[in-house]
Design brief:
Layout lengths: L3 H25 L1 H12 L8 H15 L2 H8 L3 H8 L7 H12 L2
Helix pairs in contact: 1-3, 2-3, 4-5
């Protein structure tokens, strides 16, 4: 049986590879992700749901290094980016509530 240190190293290696894969995917789709974010945060009418925009921001933060860097690129504050990304939480009640709200208002 592997030691705790070996198990921890295996988990960390998995997380590093997952981040690298997310960065690679974001780089491959960078233009589309930026278009989704810019077109849906700079206008009153959105073409994509809040959750989709938040997920696009999530991937872009991996590509650009963080919320602050993404905010500077797209002309938003760190706090605005952070608030948008709340919608991208993993299976959170917030994400479900946002999706339900959007369905009821379309």
């Amino acid at each position: 049986m592997p030691s705790k240190e070996e198990q921890l190293e295996a988990v960390l290696e998995f997380l590093r590879s997952s981040v690298d894969e997310m960065k690679a995917w974001a780089k491959e789709h960078e233009e589309f992700l930026l278009a989704v974010v810019l077109a849906n945060t700079k206008r009153k009418k959105r073409f994509f749901s809040l959750v989709v925009v938040a997920e696009a921001m999530f991937y872009l933060t991996f590509l650009y290094g963080g919320k602050k860097e993404l905010g500077e690129l797209i002309g938003m504050s760190y706090e605005s980016v952070r608030e948008w990304m709340v919608c991208a939480g993993d299976g959170s009640a917030i994400r479900e509530a946002v999706a339900t709200y959007e369905k009821s208002n379309t």
